[in-house]
Amino acid sequence: MNHYHLLIVAGVFAASCSQILLKISAVRPHRSRLTFILNGYVILAYSILLGSLLINTYAFSKGVMLKDLPTLESLSSIFVPALSAIVLRERITARKIFAAILISSGIYIFYM
């Protein structure tokens, strides 16, 4: 693993953070459909997703193989529940833990 792989991990973490921002926006009351779509949380979340896309594109242009992406993207199944527990105070259930293990195991088997 080189430092370009770490860039992709940072991009996956950023995308996971943007999912948390989108969920925060979704549960808040809004005055209209327009403010539901165009508010600070949504704009920031999609800006972060754009940054994640640019990071991934840069890392791929520097030699990260496309076959490495599913392995690195599976980290989102760990990042999102962890961030949900920390930021949104959601409970991490046994079912979520099992799902993350199952996804990670499948990606590991696929990658080997």
Topology:
Blueprint: H1 3-27, H2 33-37, H3 40-61, H4 69-73, H5 76-87, H6 94-111
Helix pairs in contact: 1-3, 1-5
Task: Please provide a written account of the structure.
The protein is an all-alpha fold and 112 residues long. It contains 6 helices and no strands. The protein has helices spanning 3-27, 33-37, 40-61, 69-73, 76-87, 94-111. The two termini are 15 Å apart. The model has no long low-confidence stretch (mean pLDDT 90).
Radius of gyration: 16 Å
Number of separate strands: 0
Tell me about the biggest sheet? none
Outline the low-pLDDT stretches.
Answer: none
Q: Estimate the strand proportion.
A: under 5%
Distance between the ends? 15 Å
The oligomerization state is single chain
Q: What sort of overall outline do the alpha carbons produce when their principal axes are compared?
A: flat
Provide a count of the helices: 6
Decide which structural class fits the backbone: mainly alpha
Helix content: over 70%
What's the pLDDT, averaged over the residues? 90
The secondary-structure element order is HHHHHH
Features:
mainly alpha; 6 helices
Short note summarizing the structure:
This protein is mostly helical and 112 residues long. Helix content is 78%, strand content 0%.
